[in-house]
Amino acid sequence: MNAPVRLPLPPSLYADTAVAPTMTPPLDADKSVSVAIIGGGFTGLSTALHLAEQGVDVTVLEAQQPGWGASGNNGGQVNPG
């Protein structure tokens, strides 16, 4: 099997200001956890964090890097009025 290709983040404020991600090896063997979360965006990472804080054995599976998809492209603005 070929190694996965890591794509750069799309241009955004997040991409310009984010700390470089910790390089992690691809999952290449079976892993048994209580909860497997597919996707490392806002929702997936928040869910994983909250579960881990409660002592749940959790793993996040992400094809690229955290924030790569919609979460990294979100303008997320709050405007008064």
Describe this structure in words.
This protein has 81 residues and is α+β, with helices and mostly antiparallel strands. It has a domain at 33-71. It has helices at 13-17, 42-53, 70-73, and strands at 35-38, 58-61. Strands 1-2 form a two-stranded parallel sheet. Strand 1, helix 2 and strand 2 form a beta-alpha-beta unit. The model has no long low-confidence stretch (mean pLDDT 82).
Key traits:
2 strands; 81 residues; alpha+beta
Q: Measure the end-to-end span.
A: 53 Å
Mean pLDDT: 82
- The Cα radius of gyration reads 15 Å
Specify the number of helices: 3
Based on helices, strands and strand pairing, what is the structural class? alpha+beta
Taking pLDDT < 50 over at least 5 consecutive residues as the criterion, the unreliable ranges are none
Shape: flat
* Helix content estimate: 25-40%
How much of the sequence is in beta strands? 5-15%
Q: Spell the H/E element sequence.
A: HEHEH
Strand count, sense and barrel status of the largest sheet are: 2 strands, parallel
* Strand elements, count: 2
Q: Strands of the biggest beta sheet: in what spatial order?
A: 1-2
What kind of oligomer do you see? single chain
